[in-house]
Write a structure and sequence with these properties.
Elements: H1 3-14, H2 20-27, H3 31-44, E1 63-71, H4 77-84, E2 90-95, E3 102-108, H5 111-122, E4 127-134
Antiparallel strand pairs: 1-3, 1-4, 2-3
Helix pairs in contact: 1-2, 2-3
Length: 143
């Protein structure tokens, strides 16, 4: 991956709907050359796809939290993933180092909705307990 590929990716991160001509203008390529770059980046797996980024507040989901999950015994990551995928308020999850087994990013309409969603996480058979922090304000998001 060279600097032009990085700039192409930067353009798509700013505007995933940018035309090849717009991308080319920003990185100094023709539209066909920009398309070839994007196609090559997709084929290599550097670009995995395109998606809409929705503002959760526009959907009325204004409560946000990060939740540490502590499991009972040893739980394989794929088992934990299967459990957590059943909770739609979990918008991101990862296994982590440290005392917690996983860290969840959760969104909900309000704190009452968030509390109910966290309770559903705690009800999963492989979850022992959780520790939560509520987001007061989002400073920035580089996605």
């Amino acid at each position: 991956m060279d600097i032009i590929d990085q700039r192409v990716i930067g353009c798509l991160l700013s505007d995933g709907r940018a035309t090849y001509a717009q991308i080319g203008d920003q990185v100094g390529l023709s539209a066909p050359a920009a398309k070839r770059r994007v196609d090559r980046l997709r084929a290599s797996g550097a670009i995995r796809g395109f998606t809409a980024v929705v503002d959760p507040a526009a959907l009325g989901w204004t409560a946000e939290a990060y939740v540490e999950v502590y499991c009972r015994g040893t739980v394989a990551p794929h088992e934990l993933r299967q459990s957590l995928e059943q909770v739609p308020e979990v918008v991101g999850a990862c296994t982590v180092t440290g005392s917690a087994d996983a860290l969840l990013h959760m969104l909900a309409k309000d704190n009452r909705h968030l509390e109910a969603a966290i309770e559903r996480v705690r009800d999963e058979p492989n979850v022992d307990h959780t520790e939560s922090v509520i987001v007061l304000s989002r400073l920035f998001d580089r996605r």
